[in-house]
Q: What sequence folds into this?
């Protein structure tokens, strides 16, 4: 009997191994979503994909120093950089933080809608979209072929970001290399503006019960984070407060070309990091390695990122 059981187990493992075996040519990942509870809410991180960015040219740091610091974490530049969005299911509302790049950043991004569907949701299910800022990699996913991809959603954005990125005068005055940022924002937001689904805010604003916008300007004129709280737990969705974890956690003073005002962005980053670490909040970052959720702890003159412990137990 024992021999028969052993043979059955061996055969079963062999069959199972055959069923899941990947070939060396198979370069696909599993669907990019990750769930975790936050109090009575359910958070689902959604990968929009990754994009290679030349951080040695983008960070305001000597290129050789960038390469050296990345190498300490077994990384290199161009750096494969995650782009994450986040769904918060309150039970009554489905709230999306940022929408990914859509078709605006090439074929390695734009995967958030299919990962949303893999996680069990449809774009029609989304009630509210909270935009951290209006760079194309965060708002491009609002539309598909010029049409609203989230027809039932009300979209919230800081007034200063809307006034800046949707203004033709700012587009015309921008350097040629930056004009596509304005065009992308206009293409993504105008269908919602025309349908009356775009709403703006200023200052610290409660969008929904448990959802509070906190302006974190600098990266863009109206860049905002969102503090989401349930049952005494809080997660801070901080958008583009940081781009390169391997460098900017240890040295928050390092800034990047993407910032509208690097000096302000640096000060804001230091303040956000200090608050998140002191309060023990969860943090969710758009450009941290997927799923981009964790805690911060102080270390020397900077911070240490503590990724969320993988969980399958939703209590």
A:
């Amino acid at each position: 009997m024992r021999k028969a059981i052993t043979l059955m187990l061996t055969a079963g493992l062999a069959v199972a191994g055959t069923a899941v075996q990947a070939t060396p040519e198979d370069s696909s990942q599993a669907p990019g979503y990750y769930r975790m509870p936050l109090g009575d809410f359910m958070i689902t991180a959604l990968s929009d994909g990754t994009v290679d960015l030349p951080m040695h040219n983008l960070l305001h740091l000597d290129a050789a120093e960038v390469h050296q610091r990345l190498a300490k974490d077994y990384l290199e530049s161009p750096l494969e950089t995650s782009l994450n969005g986040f769904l918060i299911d309150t039970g009554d509302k489905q709230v999306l933080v940022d929408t990914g790049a859509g078709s605006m950043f090439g074929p390695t991004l734009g995967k958030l809608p299919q990962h949303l569907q893999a996680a069990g949701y449809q774009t029609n299910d989304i009630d509210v979209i909270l935009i951290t800022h209006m760079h194309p990699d965060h708002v491009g996913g609002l539309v598909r072929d010029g049409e609203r991809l989230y027809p039932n959603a009300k979209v919230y954005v800081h007034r200063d970001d809307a006034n800046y990125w949707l203004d033709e005068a700012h587009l015309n005055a921008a350097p040629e290399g930056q004009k596509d940022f304005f065009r992308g924002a206009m293409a993504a937001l105008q269908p919602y503006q025309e349908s009356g689904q775009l709403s703006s805010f200023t200052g610290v604003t409660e969008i929904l019960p448990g959802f509070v916008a906190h302006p974190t300007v600098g990266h863009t004129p109206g860049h905002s984070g969102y503090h989401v709280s349930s049952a005494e737990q809080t997660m801070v969705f901080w958008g583009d407060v940081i781009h390169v974890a391997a460098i900017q956690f240890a040295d928050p003073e390092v800034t990047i070309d993407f910032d509208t005002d690097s000096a302000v962005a640096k000060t804001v980053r230091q303040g956000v990091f200090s608050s998140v670490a002191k309060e023990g909040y969860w943090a969710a970052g758009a450009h941290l390695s997927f799923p981009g959720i964790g805690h911060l702890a102080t270390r020397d003159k900077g911070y240490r990122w503590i990724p969320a412990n993988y969980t399958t137990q939703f209590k």
